[in-house]
Target: Gfo/Idh/MocA family oxidoreductase
Amino acid sequence: MLKVGVLGAGHLGKIHLRLLNESSKYELIGFYDPDAINGEKVATEFGYSYFENMNSLIDAVDVVDIVTPTLSHYDCAKKAMEKGRHVFIEKPITNTLKEAQELIALEEEFNIKGQVGHVERFNPAFSAVKDKIKNPMFIETHRLAEFNPRGTDVPVVLDLMIHDIDAILSVVDSKVKQINASGVSVISHSPDIANARIEFENGCVANLTASRISLKNMRKSRFFQRDAYISVDFLEKKVEVVKMKDAPESPGQFDMILQNAEGEKKQIYFENPEIQVNNAILDELETFAEAINKDTVPVVTLKQGTHALQVALQVIECF
Model:
């Protein structure tokens, strides 16, 4: 079992602590939080070992799980990597592109592994259809959340939209050509609602909307490609796959047939991929353990996390 320590015991940090404590792939050594009062409270309430010094925790483990505010990701990861520790870093990977690129260099220099916590890659709905998303040409995403003061220290693009940016980059095999975007600050000092149009060199266009001042929660993505429409509901963990194929010469009574202007007939049919119920956060943590133990490539590499950050920052530059 890999010895693991958690940096940060906020809302998400406590979730990571609980899951790592339950995991059969890790031995939870303890955690560090700069807020000693919160650290002692969490230790007393849940029984985890609280380290009063970050360096002491790093020295005692094989893997460092960084669940601190984004501004401190770089410093925490750098300290851990320079001591040869593998690092799991919550998204976004860092606050700046330069910091992210430096972490990639440290990963290579110290021959360790890093993974970024883009948890939607492990959402069972997305996992069920990812292999069916092939050469999409139009993508539309809506990620809407009710207001929560937690996370408002960064623009909504880095808080919410980056989830969809990463998911899109994982299925579009093309370089970004152009980005247009707009954002509005309503209650925070940084944009609370944003829309971005990302154009890729292969002609694919992605239209993304993110808001943290919505009256309801929504996390949906729609992928349109030749002869197929795929909808993913990340919140409800549901999918819809609608496909077309050449219509049979003698359609059945209940077959759905479309005919275009050229007279070509297509039959519409539905697929129902099986969705495997899972805990996405536990899955991302345990697949990272497998990558370390088997010396394979993590599911979300530091380079991929950096690419998502780069695109997110380009979106923000448009405001």
About this structure: Residues 156-171 form the longest helix (16 residues). The longest strand covers residues 176-184. The two ends are 46 Å apart (CA to CA).
